[in-house]
Amino acid sequence: MARYSVGFQSKTMTAVADANAMTDNGYATFLQGGSATMMLKVNEIYLGGESAASNPTTMAFGRDSTVAATAISGNFNAVLDAVTVAPGTVAVYGCVSTTKPQRSATLGHLLQLSLNAYGGIARWQARYGEEITTYGASASLGEVSLSSVTGTGIVSGHVIYEVV
Q1: Spatial CA neighbour of 153 closest among 51, 1, 9, 18
Q2: Domain boundaries, position 67
Q3: pLDDT of 3-48, one tens digit each?
Q4: Number of folded domains that form the chain
């Protein structure tokens, strides 16, 4: 199976409440399956703060009740193993889209990753067999996103996932 890293650089977070549309480039990333039967396993999330002053920022990694459509990206996606043969269909990712993702009010907080964006870090890594999964490309199990609940810190980081 192919493992990838979706990365994002110097994103200024826009705090968004559950069930509200996210703002282009105001959240770290969304990640969804590239087809109705694609499964993704997320096994690491890393955030590093880059704000110029103290800025507590609470990030949520969660499922979306409205999924992004017509992704225009804004992030980058890289295969981790140099000899991986890319699958015919790849995952969809980004932080800019025509239809904006909305974090689910009932399924929306799988992880809380809080940090002081003035140089702080937050890292989550799953144990083998305990990865967070998505299936398909529709709400609410086909897309996850990493966005701010409170705080407007500047962050960079990555989400490492596997196409199963």
Answers
A1: 51
A2: 2-163
A3: 999 999 999 999 999 999 999 999 999 999 999 999 999 999 999 9
A4: 1
